[in-house]
Task: inverse folding
């Protein structure tokens, strides 16, 4: 096996990213959010292809070939092109890069059986062997634990081995091992094309398709709520609430509003809280420098969309005094309906060293206390009052010193 091949295999076999609760770097939180979405989207595509195969529809059209061409090019920094755009599910090679220093080629297939591997290697001809240094098979599913490769075919295809067969889980690991910029690019590619791919892959059953509009939009997340007992007992809540019930009502009111947000918007809001001035000790106020957000967040268009939505739904306020200093975002907690919930929440996540980005992405609030019991009282129907902003009156002057 030559050096280039070893590099790809090592990247494929590398461990997953360490994404845990804790006040770690913003890059780790961002990686976790994007990787979670990539895994979910690729798994959904793989599951749909498996369903098609079960119905005998094993062909992959040029849309899928080109989609995985783009994903592989982003991940491996290659220049793969579609070698058989005019043929459907043709044997041999589908993608090839003969212009880069690293000359590699891929077969993209929905099949995972050993017979397909043998058939592909058999069809690789002398001209292709002369053009490429390495050959790989990407199976859009879970590869088998091992494959017995015919020694003659292995020698013909320049040392092709079991490690040259890549499944969807392997592809996910390869993506995880790249930079945050690459991970973000892959996530954007999936976000742009997942709906079209889902429709394209939908199996035809008796001349009909079952997709409807609700299948194509992001569903509300699964939420693990909390009775807020740990939150109530913490120093962050001390003296700010009359009872644990009051804390739980405020927390779950905020969760009600939070779960309506798209996952990317929730993740951005959590990341911004993780990067707040108070979290780093730069200020007593829970705000984040808007210039910092723009510098660190990798996609300007998404940033504009998400911050506009978060502001419209009263999760953020934007302040720019136009005095030559950085503008900033202040955090708000709609649905909590409590004067001190904002300060208590931000103090609690800081003292417990929680990643708010992880918290809002997973929507698992059990760290605040166990899930409420079935007989827990319902949220009281009280008159709504305007939630208190974290940035108190006069904060602007105090913040700017």
Result:
């Amino acid at each position: 096996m030559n050096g280039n091949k070893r590099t790809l295999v090592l990247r494929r076999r590398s461990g997953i990213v360490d994404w845990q609760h804790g006040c770690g770097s913003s890059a780790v939180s961002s990686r976790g959010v994007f990787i979670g979405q990539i895994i979910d989207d690729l798994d959904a595509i793989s599951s749909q292809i498996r369903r098609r195969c079960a119905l005998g529809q094993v062909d992959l059209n040029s849309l899928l070939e080109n989609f995985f061409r783009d994903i592989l090019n982003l991940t491996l920094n290659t220049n793969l092109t579609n070698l058989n755009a005019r043929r459907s599910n043709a044997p041999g090679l589908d993608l090839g890069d003969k212009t880069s220093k690293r000359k590699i080629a891929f077969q993209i297939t929905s099949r995972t059986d050993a017979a397909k591997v043998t058939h592909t290697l058999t069809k690789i001809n002398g001209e292709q062997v002369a053009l490429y240094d390495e050959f790989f098979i990407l199976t859009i599913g879970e590869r088998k634990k091992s494959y017995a490769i015919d020694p003659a075919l292995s020698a013909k295809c320049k040392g092709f081995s079991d490690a040259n067969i890549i499944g969807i889980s392997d592809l996910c690991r390869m993506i995880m091992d790249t930079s945050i910029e690459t991970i973000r690019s892959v996530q954007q590619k999936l976000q742009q094309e997942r709906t079209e791919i889902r429709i394209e892959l939908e199996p035809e059953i008796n001349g009909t398709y079952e997709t409807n509009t609700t299948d194509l939009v992001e569903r509300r997340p699964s939420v693990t709520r909390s009775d807020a007992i740990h939150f109530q007992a913490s120093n962050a809540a001390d003296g700010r609430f009359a009872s644990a019930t009051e804390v739980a009502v405020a927390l779950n009111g905020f969760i009600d509003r939070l779960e309506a947000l798209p996952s990317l918007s929730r993740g951005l809001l959590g990341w911004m809280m993780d990067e707040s001035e108070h979290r780093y000790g730069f200020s007593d106020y829970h705000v984040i420098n808007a210039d910092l957000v723009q510098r660190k967040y990798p996609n300007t268009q998404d940033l504009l969309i998400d911050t506009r939505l978060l502001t419209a739904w009263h999760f953020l306020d934007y302040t720019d005094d136009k005095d030559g200093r950085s503008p900033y975002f202040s955090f708000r907690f709609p649905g909590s309906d409590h004067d001190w919930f904002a300060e208590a929440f931000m103090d609690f996540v800081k003292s417990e060293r929680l990643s708010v980005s992880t918290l809002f992405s997973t929507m698992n609030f059990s760290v605040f206390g166990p899930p409420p019991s079935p007989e827990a009282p319902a949220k009281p129907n009280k008159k709504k009052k305007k939630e208190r902003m974290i940035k108190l009156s006069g904060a602007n002057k105090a913040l700017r010193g």
User: Anything to note?
Assistant: The chain has a mean pLDDT of 79. The beta strands are 81-82, 95-97, 104-109, 134-139, 165-166, 287-289, 316-319, 328-331. The chain is about 45% helix and 5% strand.
